[in-house]
Amino acid sequence: MLNRRSFLMRTIAVSAGALLLQPLRAMAAWNEKAFKATDLNSAMTELLGGADAEASDAIQLSAPDIAENGAVVQVSVATDMADVESISLYVEKNPSPLAAQFNMSEGMSADVTTRIKMRSTSNLIAVVKAGGKLYSTQKEVKVTIGGCGG
Amino acid sequence: MSLSRREFLHMLGMASAGGLLSNKLYASDQSMYDIGSTGDVRIMHITDVHGQLSPVYFREPNVNLGLGAANGRPPHIVGEELLKFYGIAPNTPEAHAFSYLDFDAAAQKYGKVGGYAHLATLVKQLRAEAGDGNSLLLDGGDSWQGHATNLWTNGQDMMDAMDLLGVDIMTAHWEATYGEERMRELLNGSNVEFVAQNIIVDEVAMFDGAEAYDEDTGHAFKPYTIKERGGKRIAVVGQAFPYTPIANPQRFIPNWSYGIRHDALQELVDDIRANEQVDAVILLSHNGMDVDIKLAEVVSGIDAIMGGHTHDGMPAPIIVENAGGKTLVTNGGSNGKFVGVLDLKFSGNKVSGYEYRLLPVFANMLDADAEMQAHIDAVRAPFADKLGEVLCRTDALLYRRGNFNGTWDQVICDAMVDVLDAQIALSPGFRWGPSSLAGSEITMEDLMGQTAMTYPETYVQEMTGETIKVILEDVADNLFHEDPFYQQGGDMVRTSGMSYRIDPTQTMGKRIDDMRLSDGSLIEADKTYKVSGWATVGSVSPGAPIWDVAAEYLRAKDTLTMGKPDTPEMVGVDGNPGVVEL
After folding, report:
1. Is A146 a member of any domain?
2. Considering B341, B376, B411, which residue would you say is the last residue of a domain?
3. Is-contact B565 B431, C-beta < 8 A?
4. Taking every pair of C-alpha atoms in chain B, what is the biggest distance, in angstroms?
């Protein structure tokens, strides 16, 4: 059985290989207008064609309540919805709210984890596009100056 | 004059007769310490001792605000409201232990509290009462920091004392400020078992070789342990302070990530219940009481959460209902002042009843245990001259605890303004730090009791009015956020050289206004001000340690005098039982 360390080592080896093989495809998927948009609505509109997403309990968004380091906040999004086309993540108060987008193809498990930057305390919004419709959930993540523990 | 032991015993008997009986806090025996064993297993709990090996005075707060659902709910009741809530008669030893009321006079009368040698005598007595092999002693953390000798021995004095006391299991908060390596070194040389389900080794750090208890789960330490006592299997899960890398410098523990991790806790408790044939599950928690109450609502399967961090000496547990039944939530106070005693009764393999008491440790009531006293004397001997240096006398009662400035922090902030030539001084809202009575001498030991830590450096820097407001708002949100999971458990940042108005019921960014310098002029957003502070969590500050700055200030005085501390004008909290304005 793989332990955590050897699993990580393999994962990292695999991703390094994958990155080398596919730089062009990754670049092609970059939606500059969406990633450079300065407010949530335009980022969603540029990326997904609309900013109206239905609130959904079927999306599990996990992120810390208070970030230990705003520069590296680990976020996971998972859902059991059918026909998931994409998952995107927004930090409402970042200068450019769109933080990440994952395009899903058939047969992929809609369960992603990434590390993002957060400038300040903000709502974090996960949007799932499934069957042509947008669904979302959100959570407040605090970025604090800290220093006052009992 | 302090009472003789005989007079003291008489008073305790009176207290029990006069109202405590109704709440069954103590048996109606002569002494609060002969409680009688009513259960099959006795769990003793100490927490947030903050290194106080010798007895101290410790004043409870007159401001401990609860908002929303927490308004008026323990621990957010102070003074007479607290006595009424728990049926404690005024002017009794218990009233003194649990409230700030008439503190100076009552402290003179009843004497000091805590002290590991007195605690040891009490623990031995409670253990004997429960019967051989029927009890457990838990320490909720914040044991290794808060006294000069903790710092000067790198935590060794407390680790040895905990071994002597026979602590079975502990978890942590400030322990981490000695760094991972020292923390592991002390624990490895001790018989105390350390548990924490919420200290996780960062994946990248583990890849680089960081130590983990379990590489698959990422747990840095054992998440729980099981002890057999009184023929019952008791699981004790550890919950370290979830915001350690935020409230304290992350540089001491770069490999670790914390968090409340309530989902992981639920999975762990379910797993323990399913596979370990346990009779009870206890969470030894350093979350803070409001966080523990919410945790008990969302996680089921825990019989009792024995909590600390927020230093709330609460005489009775809160009973929280959740999907799986009921969970008791306690909070055990601080500075060695109390021992929590939870007697559990079982029927079959289930808890069927309990009795809980939070026993105040009155040093005048309990003989010092000889072996423990010898250890304490040996620890102090090499530092006797430094500890005993008299800095000045004080005309005022000096205390720290409370949501806003106490007099001890006023001294520290005033010292920074004076010695470091700043317009404004800021000091973190720590909850540790004993009290010094009016008319007493202030020694270096007393000052270190407010400042002893591994990141004491001071700074002086230019800050804009906007930055000052951001800092105040940020800390206020950590204290007053409506969702306890977003609270960090300290008190409001202390200030000198400025005043402000606060509405704790507002939201982030909207609580603070009317910030003024001490000359009455408004602090303007885009103007700069010379601000001093200490205990920075980011990088190491360049200035002298705070105890040097404050000692210089105090040595220049013959007698310290002080008016009312610089507490802010409060709005929106009229009628809140968590505040009495003095």
Report:
1. no
2. B376
3. no
4. 69
Strands B325-331 and B135-139: unpaired
Q: Write the single-letter amino acid at B136.
A: L
- B88 and B14 together in one domain: yes
Nearest to B250 among A65, A69, A140 (CB): A69
Domain of B493, in residue numbers: 389-570
pLDDT-based confidence at residue B38 (cuts at 50, 70, 90): confident
* Residues of B with Cβ-Cβ distance to A12 under 8 angstroms: 207
| Distance, CA of B248 to CA of B145 (rounded, Å) | 13
What's the burial of B166, exposed, middle or buried (CB within 10 Å: 0-12/13-18/19+)? middle
Place of tokens 């990440």: A100
- Using an 8 Å CB-CB cutoff, list chain A residues near B310: 150
Model confidence pLDDT, tens digit, residues B367-384: 999 999 999 999 999 999
3-state secondary structure of B497: coil
Contact with chain A for residue B207, Cβ under 8 A: yes
pLDDT tier at A12, thresholds 50, 70, 90: very low
Same domain, A41 and A105: yes
pLDDT digits (tens, 9 = 90+) for B240-277: 999 999 999 999 999 999 999 999 999 999 999 999 99
Check residue B563 and give its pLDDT: 84
Please indicate whether, in this complex, the C-beta atoms of B485 and A64 are within 8 angstroms of each other.
no
d(CA A129, CA B305): 41
Do residues B142 and B49 share a domain?
A: yes
Nearest by CB to A149, from B206, B250, B488: name it: B488
A3–chain B nearest CA distance, Å: 6
pTM of the model: 0.92
Beta pairing partners, B393: B441, B559
Q: Supply B425's token pair.
A: 């001084």
Q: Strands B232-239 and B280-285: what pairing?
A: parallel
Nearest CA to A127 out of A31, A28, A33, A45 is that of: A45
| Last residue in a domain, options B83, B111, B139 | B111
pLDDT at B4: 56
In Å, how far are A94, A126, B503, B536, B572 from B510, measured between CA atoms? 20, 27, 8, 25, 13
Residues 540-559 of B with CB under 8 A from A: none
> What is the arithmetic mean of pLDDT over B503-518?
96
The minimal CB distance from A149 to the residues B173, B471, B486 is found for: B173
Same domain, A70 and A125: yes
**A121 in a structural domain:** yes
Residues A2 and A45 placed together within one structural domain of the fold: no
A148: nearest CB among B260, B310, B488: B488
Query: For residue B528, what is the enclosing H or E element?
Result: strand B528-534
Same domain, A6 and A68: no
Mapped onto helix, strand or coil, the DSSP state of residue B570 is: strand
- Euclidean distance between CA atoms B140 and B312, whole angstroms: 13
Q: What count of CB pairs under 8 Å joins A to B? A: 104
Q: Best interface-test mutation with A: which of B142, B174, B246, B289 has the largest number of A CBs within 10 A?
A: B246
